[in-house]
Design goal:
Chain B: This is FHA domain-containing protein. The complex is a heterodimer. By secondary structure, chain A is an alpha+beta fold. In chain A, 32% of the residues lie in helices and 12% in strands. About 11% of the residues of chain A have low confidence. By secondary structure, chain B is α+β, with helices and mostly antiparallel strands. Chain B has two domains: 116 residues, Tumour Suppressor Smad4 (Sandwich); 95 residues, no CATH class. In chain B, strands 2-1-11-10-7-8 form a six-stranded antiparallel β-sheet. The longest helix of chain B has 14 residues. The chains are: A alpha+beta, B alpha+beta.
Chain lengths: 531, 251
């Protein structure tokens, strides 16, 4: 260990019941120490977690979040919050466990005062340590299967790890692997999540290398973890990185050339058969072409010769609506890869049991029909093919008024769900009646306009998300004082513009018949008790 | 995934008001040929004094190379913030590497000097004493604290760093005043230029407002400041750049 410790803690230092022993490792943000438990706690720490069932020894991760520390950093608090949040909400067998979280209260040590201390399960080693000692370990495939299982557990629960690499894979006393270090972890909001603008260059997918960064951070997806897994698997199995180059920046340029299509992927000939195809699908050029975490797990388990891991209980957790959608087991059907979405999100209500219960294995089937039944009625003729798209699109928007039933009602009125609608006289096309020159501004997920005006046809998979982005942009621009149902005002603004609606002080008369029809279907599609 | 931006010499009014429209973004490995001839050059420079095939710019990851295809003219590549620092590229020299973050290629064209600007916003800077390492978690931003854009960013962030989290941002004119003691040539245009460059450098996501108004980035300053503060790109002790006299003389 040559690098300086981010947080220096003297041996023998006491935090609650814990006495600090030898240093274990340090990362960019915090440092980890071995610690032993004493029976009597000391008064200068505030305990913020439960106290029973503490082991005799643990790993203490110190994050210097105190106000008196010289390097008081705003982003560090955010990163710490992310890690705490994940540990509090998620316990899974392949994720390292947090026993409790403490805050140091010690004015005599200003550099430690206020630090957040995560009391974590103690590991024997990290994958990085193992690879440094013995490149291509013989049990590499088994370890990879366990890492992949951890990823699948995270993705299943609706989280992205965001920083998968050998140093963040810990090896336990029995030799099994667990994922750790959740500073970059982010909860999915629909198809993507926001992660702080940090990454580990050699494990970052090309689309995120120089991606645009908004005020919430940058967008990530589970496919970013899948890319990192591909790099990690190549490293474990061949002791080389999949992209050529002697320095991180050379490998980064190689990744960019590969992603642009000017270079082919040349995987090491030392990669065992069976793994070649897996690594290749992890390292697909674009995130949409990459394999999903769940399918990856099946393939990795098959090639590694390990047993199939038990099916996981599924949890749906979303921004603004923290409660899981609880469904009876009989309807807990999983919509897998409908319309190109690789994320399956069905709940059976078990959100944070120890994980791994296989009780639900028999109830999964591939039916899209009742998707999002809590938000959108299933018995009113909304074509089932569009349900996932409508529900996901509405959930991608943080404006509470942009609901699945609003989008469905508008699609009904705009086109009667006709994906092939073509109305050249009005210059409107597709299920959402997009005018090409307007669609241009909303066609890209990242908010950038298209390079040129798109040409119809506009398939539903493009039209509906673009409509959601536009509605989501309109919603906060309508004057707060306008009378009437906000959803109806939003629909009117979609037909004309938010400025016209603001100027008219409500729905302009010309658009009343349109909004009347939207109101009718809005009522029809909204489940009882929902807005 | 571009790494180099080429800004042609301003020719029309349109370019002045839509600077984005005229820029070329090159990804690593991409080439941009320039010269008088409309055919065979992506960037045509309509000036009698420029060779028909004058040269080529190639993006090489974070830096770029210049080929001088003219038969007689030496091209000078200046570092506008480098106090006269420059590189000469002789006629016929191919793929000369250019190390500056900002460069101005000056084409000597029958008495006129036509500047082609090239930006290399992906330059990396050392973040920790341990040096370069592809396996360390690193911030996605890399800023050079000695550059003018950093002083502009610091001036924009100053009121909020001094303890008023909701203080209104300084106007461009106030930023000019704030920077003038250290930067004599500061002007509205040069400060605005640096703000535009920061938006490129920090890969600011254009807000949806741009949909209505084209390239105008509403609230660009606001977004820059909130990004910079959120990721600690500027901290209170960095405000020293606003106080200490710079060693460089204004050009």
């Amino acid at each position: 260990m040559t690098e300086a410790y981010a947080v220096a803690v003297p041996k023998g230092y006491r935090v609650g019941p814990w006495e600090v022993r030898a240093p274990i490792a340090t990362g960019a943000f915090g440092s980890v120490y071995e610690a032993r438990r004493h029976e009597a706690g000391r008064h200068e720490t505030r305990r913020t977690g439960p106290h029973e069932g503490l082991p005799r020894s643990a790993a203490l991760k110190f994050l210097p979040t105190g106000t008196g520390t010289p390097r008081q950093l705003a982003h560090l608090r955010e990163l710490t919050e992310r890690e705490l949040e994940l540990h509090r909400r998620l316990k899974r067998p392949r994720l390292i466990r947090m026993y409790e979280a403490l805050t140091v209260d010690d004015p005599d040590h200003p550099e430690l005062d206020g630090a957040t201390v995560l009391v974590l399960e103690r590991a024997e080693d990290s994958l990085a340590g193992l690879l440094a000692r013995s490149p291509h370990p013989p049990h590499g495939p088994a370890l990879l299967a366990q890492i992949c299982e951890g990823l699948a557990q995270l993705h299943d629960a609706g989280w992205v790890h965001g920083d998968l690499k050998p140093a963040n894979v810990l090896l336990m006393e029995d030799g099994s692997a667990r994922l750790a270090d959740f500073n970059m972890a982010a909860e999915l909001e629909g198809t993507h999540a926001y992660t702080p603008a940090f990454s580990t260059p050699d494990y970052t997918p090309p689309e995120m290398l120089w991606s645009e960064i908004g005020e919430r951070g940058r967008q990530t997806r589970p496919s970013a973890d899948v890319w990192a897994f591909g790099v990690l698997a190549h490293l474990v199995l061949t002791d080389t990185f999949p992209l050529p180059g002697g320095t991180p920046s050379a490998r980064r340029d190689a990744a960019v050339r590969y992603a642009r299509g000017t270079d082919e992927l040349r995987l090491s000939p030392g990669l065992p058969d069976g793994w070649r195809e897996i690594v290749r699908t992890c390292l697909a050029r674009t995130h949409t072409e990459r394999i999903s975490g769940e399918e990856l797990l099946r393939q990795v388990e098959a090639v590694a010769g390990t047993g199939r891991s038990p099916r996981l209980p599924r949890v749906r957790v979303r921004r603004g609506r923290r409660t899981a959608v609880v469904m009876g087991a009989a309807v807990a059907a999983v919509a897998v890869s409908v319309l190109g979405y690789g994320i399956s999100t069905w709940a059976d209500g078990a959100s944070d049991d120890g994980g791994g219960s296989a009780g639900n294995a028999g109830t999964r089937s591939v039916t899209a029909a009742p998707y999002g039944a809590a938000d959108l009625r299933t018995d009113r003729g909304i074509p089932s093919a569009y349900r996932l798209l409508i529900v996901e699109t509405a959930h991608d928007c943080d404006q509470g008024d942009v609901t699945p039933s609003l989008i469905a009602a508008m699609l009904k009125v705009e086109s009667n769900f006709d994906p092939d609608l073509s109305d050249p006289d009005k210059d409107e096309y597709g299920i959402a009646r997009w005018t090409p020159s307007v669609l241009r501004w909303w066609m890209h997920e990242d908010g950038t306009p298209g390079e040129s005006v798109p040409k119809p046809p506009f398939p539903p998979a493009e039209s509906i998300p673009a409509m959601g982005r536009y509605l989501c942009w309109i919603a906060p621009r309508l004057d707060a004082e306008l009378p009437g149902d906000r959803r109806v005002l939003i629909a009117a603004a979609y037909r004309t513009s938010y400025a016209k609606v603001n100027d008219a002080g409500g729905v302009p008369p010309k658009y009343r018949s349109y909004t009347d029809r939207v109101v009718h279907h809005l009522k029809e599609y909204t489940p009882p008790g929902k807005k | 995934m571009y790494s180099i931006i080429v800004v042609p010499p301003p020719t029309t009014e349109r370019d002045r008001f839509r600077p984005d429209a005229a820029r070329f973004r090159l990804a690593p490995g991409e080439r941009l040929a320039f010269g008088r001839s409309e055919s065979g050059n992506e960037l045509a420079i309509a000036h009698e004094g420029v060779s028909r095939k004058a040269g080529e710019i190639t993006a090489q990851g974070t830096f770029w190379t210049l080929s001088n295809l003219s038969s007689h003219q030496t091209y000078v590549v200046e570092n506008p913030e480098g106090a006269g620092e420059h590189i000469k590229v002789a006629p016929g020299r191919l793929d000369a590497p250019i190390p500056f973050e900002f460069s101005r290629i000056v084409l000597p064209a029958a008495g006129d000097l036509l500047p082609v600007e090239v930006w290399a916003p992906r330059h990396d800077y050392l973040r920790s004493p341990e040096g370069l390492d592809g396996t360390t978690t690193a911030p996605a931003f890399s800023v050079d604290r000695t550059k003018r854009y950093f002083a502009v960013l610091a001036a924009l962030c100053e009121p909020r760093l001094r303890g008023e989290p909701h203080a209104p941002l300084p106007t461009v004119d106030q930023v000019v005043e704030r920077l003038r003691p250290n930067w004599q040539a500061a002007s509205r245009t040069s400060v605005q230029w640096n703000i535009d460059y920061l938006a490129v450098k920090l890969r600011l996501k254009p807000g949806p407002e741009t949909a209505d108004t084209g390239p105008r980035l509403n609230g660009k300053k606001e977004s820059l400041v909130s990004l910079a503060l959120r990721f600690d790109l500027v901290r209170e002790d960095d405000l020293i750049v606003l106080l200490a006299p710079t060693r460089r003389e204004a050009r």
